[in-house]
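Run GTPase Obg through structure prediction, thanks.
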Amino acid sequence: MKFVDEASILVVAGDGGNGCVSFRREKYIPKGGPDGGDGGDGGDVWMEADENLNTLIDYRFEKSFRAERGQHGASRDCTGKRGKDVTIKVPVGTRVIDQGTGETMGDMTKHGQRLLVAKGGWHGLGNTRFKSSVNRTPRQKTNGTPGDKRDLLLELMLLADVGMLGMPNAGKSTFIRAVSAAKPKVADYPFTTLVPSLGVVRMDSEKSFVVADIPGLIEGAAEGAGLGIRFLKHLERCRVLLHLIDIDPIDGSDPVENARIIIGELEKYSQDLAAKPRWLVFNKIDLMDKTEAEEKAKAIAEALGWEGKYYLISAASQLGVKDLCWDVMTFIIENPIAQAEEAKQPEKVEFMWDDYHRQQLAEVEEDADDDWDDDWDEDDEEGVEFIYKR
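Sure, done. The structure for GTPase Obg is below.
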């Protein structure tokens, strides 16, 4: 299946149903009073994270999602039915952004997590709501409010503990094949990896971590060169980045300059991502003798001003790979993910007392002297249409 990590969609919540103006009329009860019911609330639009999905390809074709509007109120104090909600299922790791404001509405990081992205409109009030001791025949009602309408950008970001960085052909895919069951394509030409891939590294029966491999970066990636930097977002949730450096590039390029290019592109993309823990890993040491590899790695680290520990490995022959993985596992255990605050459930407001309906009732009271009377005229053609029942 094609990997799609971005999609734009339109979500429209349902409008609220209008209130009804109606009067009870039965045999021997000519003036039974108002009995117009309220409308129903409009349906909401929700996002739900589903671990069974791994791409946003469905939303490249289906781009509009509309919830049902609330039904109008009816006579005999019948309240309109609430509009049906719409639930949009997205892969775990999806970020939801409001394109109109640029606001990030939420990150879907857990299976079953739900996020309200468009709230349905409030229901309108029927004329029963406006009756009082001095207004026994109210002819007022209110209409439902429109539902929310938003243009959303969905961004899928892979959930991994470790992210791989490096130039094309630095050996990232070979490394992930060596430490996990993932089988990304490996070949001797640049940009063999075109889409991100994940691998699970199992150290023992109880310890494991997830590593993400993204396409290589080249100079000018921030301006769109190569495959650009659009895949760097998949590293934002990683706890540590492994910066793979080809210790002896086949094209004769300078490993120091290659490393500086990667660091520069990271800083252009995001200062937060550039500030993440980053480990230096020299790959392909099997192409030279041990002493030469150690001397060259030391020289590169000094040229970069690197003061921390660095690793020498060969992903192809798995030399030094196991020690690196155990150090990564230890780091992950010692640096757990900060628990996010539990999302607050939307407060349910009793419809009679919400602010919108308070305002509507207050506006009617201001016009009481102009609109209210003690009876009604069946031949009066002005004003609101009535529903009479026998």
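The radius of gyration is 32 Å.
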